[in-house]
Amino acid sequence: MKEKIVNIIDEILRKKEFPSVNYSLEPSKNPDFGDLSANAALLLAKQLKKNPRDIAKEISAELEKHTDIFTKVEIAGAGFINLFVNNSVYLNVLPVILEKQSEYGKSKINNGKKANLEWVSANPTGPLHAGHGRQVCLGKAIANLLEWSGYEVTREYYYNDAGNQMNNLAKSVYARYMQKFDKDYPFPEDGYNGDYIRECADKIFAEKGDSLKEPDNLDYFKETAEKNNFDKIRSTLQTLGVKHDIYFNETDLYKNKDIEKLLADFKKMGASREEEGAVWLKMDKSRFQKDKVIVKSTGEPTYRLPDMAYHINKIKRGFDYIIDIFGSDHGDTYKEVLYGMELAGYKTDNIKVIIHQMVTFKIGDQSVKMSKRSDNVYYLDDLINDVGVDATQFFFVMRAANTHLDFDIELAKEQSDKNPVYYLQYAYARISGIFRNAKENLPSDIFGNEFKLDLLNAPEEIDLLKVLSGFPEEIVNVSQTLEPHKIITYLNGVAESFHKFYHNNRVINTEDMETTKARLKLCLAAATVLKNGFEIIGINAPERM
RNA sequence: GCGCCCGUAGCUCAGUCGGAUAGAGCAACAGCCUUCUAAGCUGUGGGUCAGUGGUUCGAAUCCACUCGGGCGUACCA
User: Fold this and answer.
1) Is the CB of A420 under 7 A from strand B?
2) Cβ(A522)–Cβ(A464) below 8 Å
3) Is A352:A322 a contact under the CB 8 Å cutoff?
4) Residues of each domain in chain A carrying CATH 3.30.1360.70
5) Could you give the 3-state DSSP secondary structure of residue A85?
6) Which of A5, A77, A17, A4 is nearest to A44 (CA)?
7) Which letter, b or e, does each residue of A236-262 get, where b requires 16 or more Cβ atoms within 10 Å of its Cβ?
8) Residue A486 CB closer than 7 angstroms to strand B?
9) What are the angstrom distances between the C-alpha of A68 and each of A25, A455, A456?
10) Which nucleotide does the CA of A434 lie closest to, via C1'?
11) Which positions in strand B are less than 7 Å from the protein's CB atoms?
12) Number of H helices, E strands in chain A
C-alpha cells in the first residue's frame, strides 16, 4: 500500500519537475496527523530555496485528486504533508491476507538470488555454552528472514578442527584419563576443564581400559573428544530447530591446496614478508595497528589465512550475498580477513558481517559464569532446560544485536504475564480459542468464503487492519537491515491491536451472524500474521496456553 | 594508549540514513471478569535521551571532546 502511495508522490514530483529528494513517508505518530506523513516539501524547500508550505500546497493539490485513496490531505507544521487514508484501502487488505495465508508477507525482491549464512561455527572443544545461544537464535531468525525476502539460503557451519586448541583438548582428556590411574597426574594449565572432559575420559576408560596409557599417540583422545563434543553441539542445535545445510571442514582447505595457493599469491605480489621464521601479512597502516602473522614460525598458519581462503571459497561458489555472524570478541579480526581477501584481488562488498555483543546471564542480581575454562559452566542446554525453547529463542532475538544483552533467567522462566513471550503467544492462543468455540457452537457455513467487508467498521477493527497491512513492508525493511528484533516490535503492535479489538468487540454473536462471519475473517488474518511472524523469529504458535 | 560497540523512565530495552508532544514491557498506584482464555483491557505517576560544545528551520539521532561500561588490541580461535 505504501509503495502505491510512494509511486503517486514520485509521479507528482516528476510532473512538477522537482529535483529528486530522498524523502520519507512514515506512519504518523499522532492520529491528528493522519495515517502517513511525508516530509518531501521540507527537503525540496532546502534545495529550491522556496517556502516549504508553498511546495507542500502544490503537492497536496495533486494528492487530493486521488479520492479513492485519501479522505483528506493536510499541510501541517513547517510543511509536512499529512495523509488520511480511506478505510477501504485497509479493508481491501483483508481478502489478500486470507488468500495468501502462510505466504502473506513473503517478498520476491530477492527471488533468484542465493545467500550464504554462516553462523555458530563453534570449534568442537566443548558443548555450546549459554552465550552461544545469542548467535544460534539470531542466525536462525536471520536465515528465515532472508528466505522470506526471496533468497535461496544456504545455512553453513565452519567446522574448525585444526590448530592448537584440538591438541589442547586431547591433552585435557588424556590427563583426566590418566587421573583414573594416578589421581595426581598433572592437568594441563590451560586445559579444558568442564565435566564433559571427564565424561569423555570415563567413556574411553570404559571402552579401552588401561590400554592407552602411553602418551605417544593422543589421536584417539582427540578424535573421540571431538566427536563427543560435536554430537553435543548438534544435539543442542537440533533442540533449537537449527539445521545447517553444509558443515564446511577447514581441513578441506588444506587438502585442496587453497591455503597454500593463497599464501603463494601473497608472496608473489609482495603482500607478505618473513620475519623471525614467521610470515606476516603487510597491513594498511592507516586501518590496522600492525602487520599480522599468517604463518607461525612452526609452519602452521594462524586462523586468518584459512579464514581468508574459506571466504574466497564462498565467493567462488557464486553467492549473491554472504553473511557471517560473530560475537564481539571477533569484532576486529573479520576486518583483517576481508582486507586479506581484497589484497588477493577479491571484492568483498557483498559480504556482510553481523557482530553481536556479549550476553550477561542473571538470576536475580547474580550473574552466571560462562567461561569454558572453569568447572561450573552454564551450557546452552542448561538454559533451554531452565526456560524452554521458545523463551530462549525469543529473549535472544528480542534485542538489537549490537547492544549488550542482559538475559534475565528468572523472567524468562516465569509462566505469567511478566514474560514478554506470552504477550504475543497469548494473542494467538486467544484467537485459537475463538475458533474452537465457533466450530463447536456455530453452523459450519460460518467459515464460508463470502462475507461482508463493510461490517468491519469499528475503530479497533480498522486499527488492526492497518497494522496487519504493514506486515509485508516490515519484512522487506527488516530483511535489509537483518535485525529480527524489529519483527518482534512489530508483532507486539499486532498483539496489542488484537487484544484491544478483542476486548471491545465480541466476535461470536449468534444474534448477528454476518458480523460474526466478518470478524472471524479478521481474526483469521490476525492469526495468520502472528503465525508467519512467529515462524520468522523462530517461536511456536500455541493453540492453548 | 589505540580500535569497535554501548549509555534513553526505578529495571530490561525499542526509537538513531535529522522531523511534530521521546515509546513498550515489567515494577508502583487506581479501575474492569454472569458473555469467545484477566498470560487481557483502561487510566495515573515516572525522563536534563550520560555530560559539554558545535552543525540548522529542526538533534535522542550528525560532528568534536569529556565521563562511564563491554569487547578487542596473540606466532589462541
Assistant:
1) yes
2) yes
3) yes
4) 2-85
5) strand
6) A17
7) bbeebebebeeebebeebeeeebbeeb
8) yes
9) 19, 19, 18
10) B36
11) 1-7, 12-15, 17, 19-21, 23-27, 35-42, 57, 69-77
12) 21, 15
User: What ipTM was predicted for this assembly?
Assistant: 0.94
pTM over 0.90: yes
Which three cell numbers, joined as nine digits, stand for A462? 480498522
- A300 beta carbon < 7 A from strand B? yes
Q: What's the grid cell of residue A155?
A: 545455512
Closest residue to B41 (CA to C1') is A503
Q: Residue A502 CB closer than 7 angstroms to strand B?
A: yes
What CATH number matches the domain at A114-160+243-356, 3.40.50.2300, 3.40.50.620, 1.25.40.10, 3.30.420.280? Answer: 3.40.50.620
Q: Which residues of chain A have pLDDT under 70?
A: 369-376
Please give the C-alpha separations between residue A259 and each of A90, A246, A269, A278, in angstroms, as whole numbers: 57, 20, 16, 16
Angle between the A164-178 and A195-208 helix axes, to the nearest 10 degrees? Answer: 60
Q: A151 and A476 in contact (C-beta within 8 Å)?
A: no
How do A292-295 and A278-281 pair as beta strands?
A: antiparallel
Distance from CA(A146) to C1'(B4), angstroms, rounded: 26
**pLDDT for A372:** 47
Q: What is the amino acid identity at position A235? A: S
Percent of chain A with pLDDT strictly greater than 90: 67
Model pLDDT, residue A224? 94
- pLDDT computed for residue A384 by the predictor: 94
DSSP state of A111: T
C-alpha cell at A19: 529535483
Q: What is the dihedral of CA A225, A227, A232, A235, to 10 degrees?
A: 180
CATH 1.10.730.10 in chain A is located at: 93-109+417-537
Distances (CA, A) of A491 to A45, A165, A234, A364, A496: 37, 43, 30, 28, 8
Domain A2-85 part of CATH 3.40.80.10: no
As annotated, the residues of chain A forming the CATH 3.40.50.620 domain(s) are 114-160+243-356
Q: What order of strands is seen across the sheet that includes strand A152-159? A: A246-249, A152-159, A114-118, A321-327, A351-356
- DSSP assignment string, A466-492: HHHHTHHHHHHHHHHHT-THHHHHHHH
* Top-tier CATH class for A93-109+417-537: mainly alpha
Q: Which pLDDT score is estimated for A17? A: 82
Subset of residues 275-294 in chain A with CB less than 7 angstroms from any atom in strand B? 275-278, 289, 293
Q: In A 45-64, which Cβ lie closer than 7 Å to strand B? A: 46
Residues 6+ apart with CB under 8 A from A292: A280, A281, A283, A302, A304, A336
Does the CB of A25 fall within 7 Å of any strand B atom? no
